[in-house]
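Readers of this paper often ask what the protein records in our data store actually look like. Such a record has a labelled line for the sequence and another for the backbone structure tokens. Nothing more is needed to write down the fold, since each code stands for a local backbone conformation. The remainder of this section carries one protein's record, kept here as part of the documentation.
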Amino acid sequence: MEDARTEPERALERRIAAEGLIVDISKRFVRCSGEDIDREIDSALALAAEFASADRSYVFLSSKNGACVDNTHEWCAPGAERQKDNLQGLSTDDVPWWMDRLHRFESIAVPSVA
């Protein structure tokens, strides 16, 4: 039987699922102790990447002066090569489009790391 749902219905279902994921991740952070924060960040990256059908997901930390960023947490799908060690001390001047998006509180999606 063909899917009878309309595109707006599917979009609404996806949004509800995304909001549920945000609630779940938020509860995990509220409940975790300080020593478990890194594990919870890694778990949240995995959940978010799997929801988005992404091969990898990262968290970067900006330096105090904002001149560079370091990859502090990384999740990769099975078979995806880890890049955390290669993503340290990146000059923000080299990635101005990242910084523009981040300053607007937007996520960064890279369709191909090649």
